[in-house]
Amino acid sequence: MSIPLVLKKRLAQLRTLVDYHQKRYHEDDAPEISDETYDSLVKELSLLEIKTSSTRGKVAEKIGGSVSEAFAKVKHIVPQWSFDNVFSAEELVDWEGKLLRQLEQVDLKKTRVSYVAEHKIDGLKLVLTYKEGLLVRAVTRGDGVTGEDVTHTAKTIKDIPLKLLYPVDLICVGEVWLAKKEFERINKERAVAGEALFANPRNAAAGSLRQLDPEIARRRHLSMFCYDIDMFTAGRAKLVPPATQYEELALLAQLGLPTNSYPKKCSTLKKVITFYNQWKDKHHELPYGVDGVVVKVDNIEIQKSVGYTTKAPRFGIAFKFPAEQTTTVVENIGLQVGRTGVVTPVAHLRPVLIAGSTVARATLHNEDQIKRLDVRIGDTV
Fold this sequence. Notes:
- Keywords: DNA damage, DNA repair, DNA replication, Ligase, NAD.
- Helices cover 34% and strands 24% of the residues.
- The protein is of the alpha+beta class.
- It folds into 2 domains: 5-62 and 325-373, CATH 2.40.50.140; 73-320, DNA ligase/mRNA capping enzyme (D-amino Acid Aminotransferase, Chain A, domain 1), CATH 3.30.470.30.
- β4 (124-131) and β5 (134-140) form a beta hairpin.
């Protein structure tokens, strides 16, 4: 199949853009664009690769970021995945259709499927390992295969018990987050000290956890919710292994680990959508950042049966909240040259807060986009 030149250029441009912003978000903890804008770029790249029958590049399939040389590298015993995203009820229904077709392929066509809906916490993924109930290691997701050993800073998080209530062997996964009020306090202190401000609570949490000095993390009062179990051996505790996602959450709480208060068992996808709509408007009232709802098949045997793609579990999906909108002013328009030589125009904006992130730059994609929008310095956008 011959790919038109204009599409080839757009593919190259999108891969450069997504790769750049992945690094700014996951590795530098300093995003330049909103999560919604990043999601839209990834979605456009994925769709364009499908449309052109182009081999899906490593950029679109990439999980997390590279591991910093400043930390000891730890290979995950269980690979760490990233959920695919949907942005509408129609896309969620399409996802369920794919799931049901997958069940047919594994001879589970008549199996009744129910779900658990949970807040999608806007934080940093952390993997905790316990041996006979004692915390032995805390590792970031990293690239999904290898993570960073941040045990020294994780131990400063009051939510994380150094000793469980039962002497079990456990690998569990959760999200480290920073309370909105704590984020505001830290940025006020940084402003007084003349230091660069954190863009949002998520990146402040990531920057705090990935510190060589644990006292910095201790002073920033991080929090954590655990939501998944990768491995579990009851040993002398004689606890029953969970058979469902909801039972996993209950077991985590029973062991003394911090869990979120709002998971919802949903017998149908319609009830998932009801849960989503309940939180779409009122999630701002929560002390932590939430950017959507994570939907998982409740039955763990079904989860194992449908498995994973190269990047994400087939049994779960992230149903993202709508992008927020606001206005600001274009203060300048510059050019950004990527590593491959692709030149991208960038609008420098009067800083504005969107969905908890300070946005000061916006990619204009190409000259045609600038002409179409007639974007000029001084414009309100």
